[in-house]
Specification:
- It contains 10 helices and 2 strands, in the order αααββααααααα.
- Helix content is 69%, strand content 3%.
- The chain has 2 domains: 3-22 and 156-264; 32-139.
- By secondary structure, it is mainly α.
- The chain has a two-stranded antiparallel ribbon.
- β1 (61-64) and β2 form a beta hairpin.
- The chain has helices at 3-20, 32-52, 55-58, 71-88, 96-113, 123-139, 157-184, 190-215, 221-238, 245-264; strands spanning 61-64, 67-70.
């Protein structure tokens, strides 16, 4: 392998090793069905909050990105955008832009509500709505209040399943090319070669299991973490070895899928 490629693999291995000691994720990724149910809950929470809010507060002024508007108008806009989000969210479209709009509005409302006494009429209902919006933010890789200029982003189940499938296919190609490359390296004994090839096949099996679970809408954070850790082990073991360009190309496709898996499950991202 050329020196630049070897350097890239070495750097990648160091970054992936971090995953081996990373703590377990604290929350399971929401699947598409969960997100849809959450959107319905946010819609209901918004209605309850507006019903309980004092009329005088509804006529109060809130400052948003579009200028000054009364709270009631802002809540109407929020309802319209939540309805739009619910209508556009599908298995084929995660509606990240629409979520960003809703979270941005929720951030403005939260900023205003924080200036009021804690016992204002509707305070408890707002806390419930804010908690639901916080869950939505987490499902889209961010937080509430939404940081300035940050965009919410999510990979839906079909995208995660495809990413895992891509990892499995790339790992299978890498396994074959790794075996071929190691056979040519006289410094590597048979037992070491077979163990390395077996580990590469393990990445493929982990990815296939992850794809199956996500495709069925089942929890899969443990499998995702196992895949990333297993891939880190394979990458570390391959570091510094004279692998073929075909092996390197196969692993690059694995890396691309791993990036998406890490993003989808909110796990530590690798350095470029």
């Amino acid at each position: 392998m050329a020196r630049p490629a070897r350097t890239a693999i070495t750097a990648y291995a160091a970054c992936m090793t971090i995953l081996l000691v990373a703590p377990a994720v604290s929350a399971e990724r929401l699947n598409d069905k969960d997100v849809k149910a959450l959107l319905d809950r946010i819609d209901n929470d918004r209605d309850r909050f507006e019903d309980q809010l004092d009329g005088k507060l509804k006529r109060s002024i809130i400052r948003g990105p579009g200028g000054e508007v009364n709270v009631e108008r802002y809540l109407d806009d929020l309802q319209e955008n939540v309805d739009k989000l619910k209508g556009r969210f599908t298995p084929q479209y995660a509606a990240s832009a629409e979520v960003t709009t809703v979270l941005r509005q929720g951030t403005d409302v939260q900023r205003y509500m924080s200036t009021l006494p804690p016992n204002f009429d509707g305070a408890s209902e707002w806390n419930r709505l804010a908690a639901s919006l916080g869950e939505l933010a987490a499902a889209y890789g961010t937080v509430l209040p939404l940081p300035e200029a940050q965009q919410a982003r999510r990979l839906n189940d079909s995208e995660v399943r495809k990413a895992a499938d891509d990892v499995a296919k790339g790992a299978d190609r890498f396994r074959k090319e790794l075996d071929s490359s190691l056979k040519k390296d006289k410094a590597i004994d048979k037992a070491t070669r077979e163990a390395s090839v077996k580990d590469a096949d393990g990445v493929k099996q982990d990815a296939q299991k992850l794809a199956s679970l996500v495709g069925d809408g089942r929890p899969a954070s443990g499998e995702a973490q196992s895949l990333l850790q297993h891939a880190a082990k394979v990458q570390a073991a391959s570091s510094g070895r004279a692998l073929s360009s075909a092996a390197q190309s196969a692993w690059e496709s694995v890396e691309s899928g791993l990036d998406k898996v890490a993003q989808a499950f909110g796990m530590p991202k690798r350095l470029p």
